[in-house]
Structures are given as C-alpha cells and as structure tokens.
Amino acid sequence: MRAAVRRSGTRLRDHLAASDPGLLRLTAGLRTVGAIALTLAVLAPTGADITHLVAGAMTSMAATFAVRERKRGAQAVTLALGLPVALASVSAGALLSERVVVGDVFAVLLIFCAVYGRRFGDRGMTLGLIGFQMYFVSLFVGAKPDQLPALWAVTTVGFACSALVRFAVVPVTPTGLLARLRQAFRVRLARLVSAHIALLDAGPDEVDKALEEVRERTARLHETALMIQSRLEEGTPDEPTARLVQRRVADAEIAAERLGLLLLSARSAERADTLTLHLPGAPAPEVGRLPGPEEATALLRRDLRALRALVLRRDTSGAGVAQVRNRLLGYRDEENLPAASAPVRDVFRGIGEAARAVMGLRIALDGPQDESDDSPATARSREELDAEDAAIDAEEAEEAEEPKGLQRPTTRAAVQVAVGSTLAIVGGELLSTDRWYWAVLTCWIVFINTASTGEILVKGYRRLLGTVFGVVAGILLAGLVGGNTVLAFVLVLVLIFAMFYTAPLSYTLMSFFVTAMLGLLYTLLHTYSWEVLVLRVEETALGAVCGVVAAALVLPVRTDRRTNELLVTVLERLSDVTEAAVTQLSGGPADELLDKARELDQALGDLRSATKPLTHPVTPLRARRTTARYVVALLETCAYHARSLAATAELLPTHPSIAADPRLRGAAGRTVRNIRTIAARVADDEVTAPVETGPSIASLLADDDASRYGRITGRVLRHLERLDEAVVGLARPLDVPVKAPEH
C-alpha cells in the first residue's frame, strides 16, 4: 500500500514538474493567495470595514506580483522601496479624486514614468507597476483625504504580509528553483522518449498524430532548457558549474532531438527532412513498417523504454541499472548492434548517444556516480565527459550597444502609452466619470511586454474577449454569493489563484478570471450592478482601441519592421554560431560556442513571439500566415543544426572519433555567406546579391587525401549539408534571388 502511495506521489510530482517547469505558476498563485489571505486575517479582527479589506487585499496582490528580481536580497530592497512609492501613490489618488483635470494630468504623468522606468531594469519596472497599481486601488475603493491614515495602515499591512509570505511561508531560493527546473527537464525528456516509442509503434494512420506529439514535446523540452539557462547565474555556486550544467542540458536536448529524427528516418523510405520536426501541421513522410527483422523492432522498443527509465530513475545504483546503462552506451562503440538495416542501426547508435547525454546530465546535476559496474564502453564515456568538463573556461560576454532617445524601446513605449492613456481618459470620462480608469488600465496593460502594433492589437483583442466572458461569470457568481462576505472572499482567492496560474498560458483566460473576480469585489463593495459590468466591457474595448491607435500613430513599430529587425538578429546569431563552429572544426581557436548557440535560441524565441500577430487564427492574410510559419520553422531547423555543430565542435579536443579538418572552412564558407546575404537583404531592400548554390558539402570533401586530415564524422557532414539546404530554402519565401551554379 505504501509503495503504491509513493508511486502515485511520484507520478503526481512528475506531472506537475512537466506541466509547470520549476513550479513557477504554482508558486506565483500560492504566494499571491497566501499574501491576500494573511492580509485579510490580520485586518479582519481589527474591525476594518469592507473597503479597507478590499484595499488591503489588492495592495498585497500588487506587492506580490510586481516584484521581479531573482535574488532574495534584491527582492527585499525592492519591497522596502515599494512601500513609500505605494503610500505616495495612494495619497495622490485620494487627494486628487475631486480635482478632475489635475488628477487626469497626474495619471498620464504617472503612467509615463511607470513605463519609462522599465529602462532601469527589474526594479524600475517593479516600482512603476506598484505606483500605477496603487493609484488604481485608491480610485477603485473611492479613497478620500480623510481616509488616508487608515489606508496608509492598510497599505503597510499589505506589504508586510506580502514580504512574510514571500520570504517565510512560500520561499523560493535560486538553487531550489533551479533544482525544480532540472527535474522538469528530466521529466520532459522522458516524455519526449515516450513520444518516440509512440512514433515507433504508430500505424500508417497514426503517424501524423504521433509526429505532432514528438514535435510538441521537443518544443517543450527546448523551452525548459532556455528556462534553466536563464537561472544558471543565480542558482549555481560559480561560473564553471553554470557552464557545466549548460553544456550537459544542451547535449541532452540535441541528443533527444536527433533521436527523433533518426527514428523518423528509419520508418520512412528516405532520410527525414529536419523541417518535419519544426513546422506545425507538416505531414509525416510516407512511412511503413520498420525495416529489418521484427526482433530488431522489439529490441528498439525495449531500449527506448530503458532509456526513459534511466532518465527518470532517481537511484542509479545497483547492478541492474548499471547493466542497462552499459548496454545502451555500448551502442556508441558499435557493440551488440542487432542485425538490421543501416537506418535502424543508426537509431540504436542514437540511443547510445542519448544515454551518454543522460549520464553526463546526471553527473553534472547529482555529482559523481557509482563506477564499480562500468563496462569498458561506459568507462570511456565517463573519461570523455571528465575531459570535456576539465576544458570548461568562462569568458565575459560583450555588452550590446543600446539605442538612444526615442529609438529606445522604453522611451517609445512610455510616449505611446501616455498618448493612449490621454485618449482613454477623455473617452472614459465620457462613458463614466466614476469608472474611467478601466479604459486607462486596459490601455496600460496592452503595452506591457509588447513591442509592435500587431502584438498590441492581438493582446487587446484577447483582453476584450476574456472580459466579455468574465462579465457573464461575474453575474453568475454575484448571484451565487448574495450577501455572504466570507464566501465572496473565498471565491476571490480561488479566482486570483486561477488568474496567476493561467497567466503564462493564456492571456484570455487570465482576463476572464480578473473580470470575474472584479464582479465579486463590486458585490463586496455594494456597487455591483448589470450596468457596472457592461460598462467594464465598454471601457475595456475603449482602452484597447486607444492603445492600438496610439501604437499605430505615435512612433509606430509596424509588425513587419519589428519581425524584420528580429529576423536580421536571428540570422546574424546563426552566422556567428555556424562560423565559430566551422572554424573550430577546421582546427581554429576555441570559442564560447554554447553561449553563442543560446543567444541564437533567445533571438529565435523573440522572433517567434513577434510573429504571433501574423500567425494568429483571426488574421485575414492567410498566405502571410503560412509564410511566417514556414520561415520560423526553417529557422528552427537551422538553429537545431547550428546547435548540433556547436556541441560537436566542443567535443573536438576529447572525442576520439572527431578530428579537425581544415577543408571544412572553405566548404562551409558558402553557407555562412548565404546567411549574411539573406540578413543584408532583409535589412535593406536595395541589396541585390543572390544566394549561391553549388555542389554538396560532402562532395567538396570527397578527395583522395582525406585521411591525412583525420576522420570527419558523418554527423558533422549531415548537419552542414542540412543547414546549407535550409538556408537556401529560406531565401525563397524571403524573396532573395538564388543563383544556380555555373557549368
């Protein structure tokens, strides 16, 4: 019975780790709800009225979600600075409540300063959020000057409760968070292997669905790898440890992605196109039964399950585990490969490489392992890992030059939101002299974490949609609650938790829960009515329209311009990674390849977010949506091959089967030139240089004296050729001319 309970608990933890990496959403929800509940528990016995209870709850919520620093000391300083900002903002809201013109001017200035503060980093953004949100709280509860002493006390209690919950009740340390992210990576890696097993067993009618599952879980694994990368600096004791974890995570990610490609290739008549793993909705290649004897398929299924068990297993001691690990690692040295076709044998080799990556990841995360039962193949893998770890050396990254003046994103956004808020105030006052701030709040929110007119339009649409459905829910909940204050506050806490838990997943859902919660707060304040909720929809629509108008007319950043700028950045990062990897594979000096690869991943993530307005289901430009998806998928393919080249190049000093070949620099030079040509064409329409095509890279290296340079593995050639093909394919949708080779 106890064993069953433990297994159920383990499965539940693994499910939470996979669905919420690092438990970031769960922590955010628990912290916010805990801070609000503690604030209410402190204020209620003092005889505070409903207005002060609501103000205290909203204050603790703002103080909790606004803080963005990762280090606990920095969080404490920001909260301490945030309290006087909150007191000043609440006071201004109360003192200016009866002075319409002055109050409106102050609101616009406050919004400008709050958005402009983003240029000063996380602390500047936090203080700006607190200042604006607390001004909004004072308007929401109808604060008057004679109520200020009580509101100051309530605000102080809210901040104190927020700090207590953050640092004592639901503490999050950088090392603890990184540990949870690492566990999430393991679970998502295991789920990707499960998807590989499903792809192996899928019938002809099930392959597309199985491939979509592989594609989705590959993307989620990559997402978790990037989250780990962003937390390494705070969560590890020193730079070498951070770089070790970074390398091992990258190795495991690349090995898992390559395993999926090898499996797909083994099931199809020809080698699978890498793009298949990165283009949403792309059909699977025509597949049949796995070639070779049925025994090989059964062994492959067994070894994939063994690989999944190695990923998830917490205790790696014992002869049984060592025997499985030794068998899988033996495939790297061609040991015990079954009698099967070449593509199927490649899958077994891929399992061996994945097992090596898993062992390296476990050593990096959990420390030295028991080596008493190692086979010679396992011992060689450990020696390779130790040699790679010893070669780690950290270098400082260069600071990028930032734009100045109105070209600086924070300055431009501050001007835009100030203009939009002015329009929202004017329109909001015409709709309601008491609730005009809803329009301003919406205008403010649609500018947060957006950078183009298209992004603002999509965000405004989603907020309006969530608000409409939230109004319906608010009506139903208000009827359910009636005059029961305790039940209303309990439901408010539930909705707030749901709001924070779903916020990273769906902005529409978050807006739905916010609006439903506000309906309950209006009920508590005895200001609830059908007219108030309808007015909220009208003010929300007005604020969204004002935000879009301001973004489109004031210092506009068109979606095309934004995506082009990010596309150029991605291409520049891609050329940097490719050139550095090829240089090292050609015998040149070592470079910080994994850092460059992660910079490429970050740039590609920014581009993916910026293209969402173009790929949104409601966009009327269907052809443009298809092109955007295709371009991003091709870039994902390019990034995969560039990451793989970078990882292979870093193995060069220690891996016995990889040797430098000076010919690579010339053979791959065309690919690097083509990437830069496309970047120049996207950045400047006047550029007319074409993309060059020619003989395959493999044919350029096929000469009689290849042995004098050592062995260049087939893996390196495959990555270079696929990267070259993907870059040429990228030229066509971007209208870059392609020059055929001259005969």
TrEMBL record:
Protein family membership: Belongs to the YccS/YhfK family.
Coiled coil (residue ranges): none
Domain of life: Bacteria
TM region(s), chain numbering: 21-44, 50-67, 74-94, 100-117, 124-143, 149-179, 413-431, 437-457, 486-503, 510-528, 540-557
Region feature Disordered, mapped onto this chain: 365-409
Record-linked Pfam families: FUSC_2 (PF13515)
PANTHER family xrefs: MULTIDRUG RESISTANCE PROTEIN MDTO, P-HYDROXYBENZOIC ACID EFFLUX PUMP SUBUNIT-RELATED
Swiss-Prot/TrEMBL keywords: Cell membrane, Membrane, Transmembrane, Transmembrane helix
Domain Integral membrane bound transporter intervals: 424-549
This protein's name: FUSC family protein
Membrane topology, record value: Multi-pass membrane protein
Annotated localization: Cell membrane
Ranges of Acidic residues composition bias in the record: 385-401
